[in-house]
Amino acid sequence: MILNTSDVDWVESSGEEPFYLVDELPSTSPSQLPPLTVWGVALCISGTVIAMENAIVVTTILATPSLRAPVFLLLASLGLADLLAGVALILHFLFLFCVKPSDWSELLTSGLLVTSLTASLCSLMGVALDRYLSLSHALTYGSGQSRRRAAALLLLVWLGACVIGAVPAMGWHCLEDPHSCSVARPLTRTYLSLLCGGFLLVVMVTLQLYAGICQVARRHAHAIATQRHFLPANQPYASKHGSGRGFSRLILVLSVFVGCWMPFSLWGLLGDASSPPLYTYATLVPAAGSSLLNPLLYSLRNKDIRRVLLQACCPHRNTIAHTCTTLWMCKLPNSNKNSQSMPNIFCLKARTNT
């Protein structure tokens, strides 16, 4: 997918000479490639970072048998979609600056980007649905039947995303009719309008799910506050600080979600082939940037995934921490004069563990 700049790409010559369209410039050597730009380098670096961090998330979930709950299946799907988005950005850089662009390369990168962004957005909606069901059906959700339903739903999501991404390659593109192009060539304006309309629909459904999550959480907090009057004074209950912290996290997730997806969805509906490409960059970059933020906001915030990653990075972390604690206790001054044997016991335990 490249920006449609057929009406706005000009090459300025020196002095008072006129401007020339790119298509009207003298033909260059077939092997000549466009010069490397800052946007191109940033594109390649961001795609590499996106692919690496999401590959870590997907590998962690698939390689851990205990991470098979519906939420982990959804996070794996989200990571895989964002991984494909990073690969698509890298391929776009290679086809643009390292290999002479062709029709099939444009169709490949655009199809891969559309597939990955569609699957990523649907996976985000699935994560919101999982959170809503886990709160409203806490006793029954998470069973084996729920996992099978989640797997079947993800299979349908990926089949639909692949079909939507393959539509331009099957003939619905603007390579032969530049006047029908959208702000992102080779996608037609009709195709991109339908795609962005679907994106807006998914965004609205996701926001509705999070609104339902807030309602369920408010009912639970009210029930806990009511039961507090019938419990002992030392009985733990949900504090206002914890509820406020959870609400602030929800606001952060929603802000990033809407801020990343809403601009490009609206611009795809309003823009056309004659629109300035700068606006397309300004709206498409946040949509691609969501693939960079999703692992930080969803996967890496999960304590089970963090525990597996820490265990993989430092398998002897618990042993080292236990040994350091024991040695520290061994060096503590003995405040009780009658307990002379206690430091020796700790020192002996530390030597045995080391």
From TrEMBL:
This protein's GO CC annotations = plasma membrane
InterPro entries documented for this protein: GPCR_Rhodpsn (IPR000276), GPCR_Rhodpsn_7TM (IPR017452), GPR_3/6/12_orphan (IPR000723)
> How is the protein disposed in the membrane?
Multi-pass membrane protein
Q: Where is the G-protein coupled receptors family 1 profile domain?
A: 53-298
UniProt keyword Isomerase present = no
The record's GO molecular-function terms, alphabetically, read: G protein-coupled receptor activity
Which domain of life does the UniProt lineage start with? Eukaryota
Positions of transmembrane segments: 36-64, 71-95, 107-129, 150-171, 191-211, 250-269, 281-300
Name the SUPFAM superfamilies for this protein. Family A G protein-coupled receptor-like
* Keyword set, alphabetical order: Cell membrane, G-protein coupled receptor, Glycoprotein, Lipoprotein, Membrane, Palmitate, Phosphoprotein, Receptor, Transducer, Transmembrane, Transmembrane helix
The listed locations are: Cell membrane
Family according to the record: Belongs to the G-protein coupled receptor 1 family.
The molecule here is called: G-protein coupled receptors family 1 profile domain-containing protein
Source organism of the structure: Mugilogobius chulae
